[in-house]
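Changelog entry: the MARVEL domain-containing protein record was regenerated in this release. Current contents:
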Amino acid sequence: MDTTNTTTQYSAERPAGQEHIPIYPRGFIGLRIAQSVLGVTTLGLSAFIVATIPFDGAALMLFVAIATIITSIWHLVSHYSAPALYNYWAVLALDIFLVFFWLISFAILADRTAWVFNIFSNNCSFGVCYQPAGLDLALSSCMAAASALGGIQFALFITSLAIHGIALHRHRKAGLHCNPLNGAAPAIAPAVVSPQDLEKNAAVSAAAAPAAVPAEAYGTPAPQTQAPYNPDLNRAASPPAGYYPPVAQQPQPYSPHQQQTPPPASDPSYYQAVSPPGSVQPHEVPVQQAYPQQQ
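Regenerated structure tokens:
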């Protein structure tokens, strides 16, 4: 399996537990060691300056030197002894932080150093010039050395930031991340089967298989005795003559009750036909009897 990026030729193969660490050039470890050594040196120089005359530039450089020593130790330990502590985003952030602070600290201290040397060089009165000696000479020399080492540290951290940025870009482009692959499933070694094992398995399979029985042992099957299919036998018998199957009574459609409308009272023939003799017909009743007057 090819695990090399064809565009950048960056190998994605890593030792177990170090999949999150980018690949750096061979001299990168020397660069980190130089940064830590110069950090210790500037720490001593700036501490002496602050103890003699507390310049602001020297105090800031003292802080940056301590931060450089701590980060350099973390870089070396996490890269070679404890890979689980390594995080390339933290390395990038610390390099950017130290680049800016080394620039600020060495620039301020260089300005104070120039002011001190200007005082010592122009300190002349009545033709007699003062030459720094003793503590003044040591102080001015330490300030100049600390300013120079601060400038070198600034250049070294710019270089380490550039190298780490390129390695980080290639690392991310290869599909790798900032955490080790601790949850990856372990590789399973393929099983190796010897020819002796294959022969034993074949013998066991042959012994477990049932013995084959020849066809003659079963004999000749008996001929079929079932009668052939006759469709006339399955046909239903016809009913006898004169038999009619009952017919289901169909319900009559519903019709509402018919009421005959009585003829009008002006037709005397209707009442003569249905009324008994001697009865009074409605048309013969006087109006006064039919409708009594209201008093």
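DSSP finds seven helices and two strands in the chain.
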